[in-house]
Amino acid sequence: MNRSENLFFPGSSLASQVHAAAVNGDKGALHKLIIGNSALKDKEDQFGRTPLMYCVLADRLDCADTLLKAGADVNKTDHSQRTALHLAAQKALGAVSIGRM
Mind listing the domains of the chain with CATH numbers? Predict the structure, then answer.
């Protein structure tokens, strides 16, 4: 692993860095990573989840917007065949169910 791979999250690969930036809402790091390597915008983790999926799950809409503007694939599916839209709908449904309790 070279020094630039550790720039934002020491000890992690670029793939895990882009996922961490997405889930933590670090828009600046996310932007720098995808500008440096545009393939990272759709990079899958061990579950097949992309940075966009993590933005949806973590309510990081500003980072999701950054990924969408960079051309992230909204139709990519994880290993369970769910897209970011599926995850958003599933999350919203869970919030509605909890609200009715």
Answer: 3-99 (1.25.40.20)
